[in-house]
Amino acid sequence: MAAASRRCRLLWAAAAAALVLALDAAFVEDLDDSFKDNRKDDIWLVDFYAPWCGHCKKLEPVWNEVGMEIRSSGSPVKVGKMDATSYSSIASEFGVRGYPTIKLLKGDLAYNYRGPRTKDDIIEFANRVSGPLIRPLPSQQMFEHVQKRHRVFFLYVGGESPLKEKYIEVASELIVYTYFFSSSEEVLPEYVTLPELPAVVVFKDGTYFVYDEYEDGDLSSWINRERFQGYLNVDGFTLYELGDTGKLVAIAIIDDKNSSAEHTRLKSVIQEVAKDYRDHFHRNFQFGHMDGNDYINSLLMDCLTYIFSDLTIPTVVVLNTSNQQYFLPDRCIESTKDLVQFINDVLDGTAQAQGGDGFLQRIKRIFYDARSTVVSVFKSSPLLGCFLFGLPLGVISIMCYGIYTADTDGGIEINETSKKELGDRELTDEDSEEEQEQEKKEKSEELSDGEHELKNIFDKKKD
After folding, report:
1. Tens of pLDDT along 341-375?
2. 17, burial (CB in 10 Å: exposed 0-12, middle 13-18, buried 19+)
């Protein structure tokens, strides 16, 4: 009786889960080739997927949750998905080159999503990009609300100007990453002082930085560098995005699960340097920490160099993503003074750089990537690995065997033909010798006949 009751509860739970999945999926529209002509009337958040793609299957339940939450929030964004293998021409028109690819389509514009594939991050992206490009802040209360809600945001202060035109232009490109606002000077809190107007300001880390064209260069490059907090919990997506900033990335490699004094001390040291030396290093460095030794090793081997020994956790690594170099301290980092000295050594060139993007390093990375791919395939699916790599090897072996046996048969035929020709030649030579002897005999006979005639002539003369 108890077992039957338990089975009944399990069936009810499975049915409820299936119903939830079905309801979630109902908020995501399956798109076909008619989408190309009908899409411009609405704002669409679309997942371009392939049925065989493992990452796409992993994203599917998250995508269904995104569709349900966006619909329930009253957002104007419609959520859909398209099989890019069935409608390859449409996917190609939108620049889809991998799976899954997430895009927000707004009129004639298409915005790529490059962040973590989590529900909250995707919804944040959709709300940010679907709204106004530049959001006005009409009051100080609104400014305070925005400051509490967003860890990093940019603000244009002032009236119409060439700087504002440039600001709008940059916002249209970088809206996929961060928020852009505008206000008058009266809206700003008292602690914010601007040297001149108009101005572009970034608010982050509990403070603000003012854009200076002479020191910071191009506005687009400056916004791209400053769109991150000064200290980050770095993961794969974040590190990939940091590659576009041009900054050196100083990372503490620690084990978050290890609460020992050594791990917590190194994390606090790099946090202190990021905060206390912000004015010295924020233009050139991005600070953060990364959890785990295996991930950073695989990352460095994959992106930077083939020759890299295992790191000893905890430690500090400085990455130069522009030329794929990295720097390791030559001594243990015990204090902020040690870390500041190491960073200064990197800046003035006295620290030894490893890795790089030279020809030899590229060749080594190619071999490492090939080896990593083969190993990962066999680990995830041994049968698939045997099929993918065994089949081509088998075909190549059969071809080589066929070529070898063909050459051997040809050699035998040639040998037999040569022997036959040699025998014919010998026979021909023998025939030639017999003919020569016959000719000699005939000549000798002819000569004898001639001599006989001459003798007869002489005999007649004597008579």
Report:
1. 999 998 888 888 877 655 565 565 566 556 656 66
2. exposed
